[in-house]
Every structure is written in C-alpha cells, then in structure tokens.
Design brief:
Length: 350
C-alpha cells in the first residue's frame, strides 16, 4: 500500500492518521516537537527538524504523497518537498494563507468581502490607519497567529502606543472590528480534477479568541449567507488549484458574509464531522489527496454540537463519559491553560 507523509505532530495529524489507517494507508509523521500526539497513531514517526535537507530527503523517500496539519509551518521545506513528491495542498495555497494581507487581497480580487484593513510597519502607520478605520479595531501579527494569539484589541485611540508595543512583531495588520451576529466556517474538499464537496456550515462560538463550540444546523442568520460564502470558498479553491480540505472562516455581517481567514488544512470547526457527518473531514482530506472519490458531507443527525475541552477546564471527563450520547476525544497532551486538550461531540434528535 502507499504511505502518506504528514508534517506536524498535533491532534489534527493524529486524526488524519486514524482516517488514513481506516482506508488502508500507512502514515509517516515528521515533527520536531518532543511531545507529539500524532506519533501515537501514525505507522511510523520521525522526530527531527524539518528544515534539514537530509531529514526532508528521507521523508520524501518514505512518502508517496505529503500533507501537513499546521499552516504556520515554514514554506521553504514545503517547496523543497514539492519538487520531490506530490504535496497537498500545494505551496501556493500555504503561502497565501500565511500572510493576512496577501490573503485579504486575494479574496477581495475574487469578489469576497473583508474587514477594512491596513498593513502596519510603524507606530505612525498605526495612527494613520486607526484614524482611517476607526475603533474598535484589532491589531494582529501579519503571520503566525493562531487561537487568537498575536492580537490586540484597540477600543480607543489612546491605546495606540500600548497596542503597538504589545504586538511586538512587525509588520502587523490593523483590521476594523466587524459587527457580526454569528461566526461560521465553510469547509470544502477539492480533488485535483476539480471535483468539490462542502459541509453544511457550523455556527462557531469563540471565547478569548479560541473556538469554544460548533453547532449545527446553523441558525437562519448563517443559513441565509451559506450560499454566497460557499461560492466564494469554491472560487478560492479553484483559483489555487487546491487539493484537500480548505477551511474558510466568516462573520455573518449585516450585508452578507465577511471573510475572516482561511486555513489550508483540516480545521477545528470540522471536528463535529467525525460522528456528525457521513464522511469526516479527515477521511475526505485523505480521499482528496489520494485521488479517491469524495464522500457524502451530509449530517448523520438532526443536530450536532462539538465542544472544545480547553486547558484546565478540561477536567470532569468522567462526567462526559457518563452521558451515553457523548463522543469524547482526548488528544493525550499535557495540560496547559488555554490549550486544546480534547473535544466532545453530541448528536441530537431535534
Ligand atoms: P485561528 O485559531 O482560528 O487560526 P487566529 O489566531 O488566526 O485564530 P482570528 O481568526 O483572526 O485568529 O481571530 C480570532 C477570533 O477573534 C475570531 O474568530 C473572531 O471571533 C475575533 N476576530 C478576529 N478578527 C476580527 C474582526 N476583524 N472583527 C471582529 N472580530 C474579529
Ligand atoms: Mg488563523
Ligand atoms: Mg480564526
């Protein structure tokens, strides 16, 4: 059988390895971290720095196809690997998703709505942009943010200097705060031949910038914007010649869906699909990168709710297991505050 190479050792890599095994593939995980939860389920594992050419050459020799589970992975090794072995999604998609300014420019060119934004190189830029965009606004690092890390909210112009100091990384990006009723995501799956499917959109609720829960079916405010958002996500995927699962986050705004950001990978807001959809996002990602037919994305129950177990709040697991309808997933990570430790999915009757 063939071997799927997975870059990154987190829970997404682990869930991809489980899905791959079910379809009869071997997986080989390459991750630098001492603690890798993907190592527990992959067929084989290399713990090494993926910037090393020797390590990458070995990885490319083992893998028939390569994918990754983290969008903040360095682009260079991905480009290097792509010359030796098929890599999905392609480096171009990763490059766009790694830079918030590039991402917003790209999406606007395809007719998508975004928050008003400006690239910020200096305190002076920030003052000018704030005068233009107004408050409230959010200053974000241009690159490498996740789970709301690398963001400072600015409620008043008096906070300008403190925000600039706090953000640290340059350049940064200032975004106007989008007034929204709900947040949701479009998860689509595309194959190399252009075949595409997408999941019904979950309503995503965040707490402190981290996804707290995803619920389906989505309320009317989201359902009415689903078509426009899914069409935009489809144009993004087509333009990038995308292969695999693509996640696009949206705000349900007053005038329609506002694109927030994309992730070129399987996504936390799609964890509900393991039990709540006919085919999980992980299986569909494996199917897409292996050129297999894509699976049904329909719901398996009238309603589905996925809740993240975060940091120290993630105790009481026995109580969750006592609920016969709860599907508990624990990632086997060491507890740290604010860390995603696991999730629980419940299917409902109505
Ligand atoms: P992720 O873990 O999803 O990659 P991230 O660190 O890249 O997160 P964002 O998705 O940009 O961060 O922001 C995290 C959350 O902060 C959003 O889901 C949303 O709730 C809020 N947020 C971010 N930008 C804006 C904005 N311009 N207007 C309103 N809310 C925002
Ligand atoms: Mg992000
Ligand atoms: Mg986000």
């Amino acid at each position: 059988g063939s071997t799927i190479g997975i870059l990154g050792g987190g829970q997404l890599g682990r869930m991809l390895a489980v899905a791959a095994a079910q379809l009869g593939y071997r997986t080989h995980v390459l991750a630098p971290d001492a603690e890798s939860v993907a190592a527990q389920t992959a067929s084989s594992f290399t713990r090494a720095d993926y910037h090393s050419r020797i390590v990458l050459d070995e990885f490319a020799a083992i893998a028939d196809v390569v994918t990754y589970e983290f969008e903040n992975i360095a682009l260079d090794p991905i480009v290097y690997l792509a010359a030796k072995v098929p890599v999905h999604p392609a480096p171009a998609a990763l490059g766009v998703a790694q830079d918030r300014a590039e991402e917003k420019t790209f999406v606007a060119e395809l007719g998508g709505r975004t928050a008003p934004w400006a690239k910020i190189e200096s305190l002076e830029d920030l003052r000018t942009a704030l005068a233009d965009i107004g408050t409230p606004a959010i200053l974000k690092t241009l690159r490498l943010g996740y789970d709301g890390k690398g963001q400072v909210r600015i409620h008043d112009a008096a906070e300008t200097e403190a925000a600039w100091e706090a953000i640290g990384q340059r350049p940064a990006i200032l975004e106007g705060f989008v007034p929204f009723s709900h947040e949701f995501s479009i998860l689509l799956v595309r194959r190399g031949d252009g075949a595409m499917v997408s999941y019904p959109p979950p309503w995503n609720q965040h707490e402190d910038g981290i996804l707290a829960r995803s619920t389906l079916p989505a309320p009317a405010e989201i359902a009415s914007q689903w078509g426009e958002a899914a069409a935009l996500a489809g144009r993004i995927a087509d333009r990038l010649g995308y292969v695999g699962v693509l996640a696009c986050e949206f705000f349900a705004g007053r005038d329609g869906p506002v694109f927030n950001e994309m992730a070129p990978r399987v996504h936390n807001s799609g964890h509900w699909t393991i039990e709540g959809a006919v085919t999980s996002q992980f299986e569909n990602h494996i199917r897409a990168i292996c050129g297999l037919p894509l699976g049904d994305t329909g719901l398996t129950a009238p309603s589905v709710a996925m809740e993240n177990l975060i940091g120290e709040a993630a105790n009481g697991w026995e109580a969750i297991l006592a609920d016969p309808g709860a599907h508990l997933h624990l990632y086997g990570k060491e507890v740290r505050p604010g860390r995603k430790m696991g999730h629980v999915t419940r299917l409902g009757r109505g």
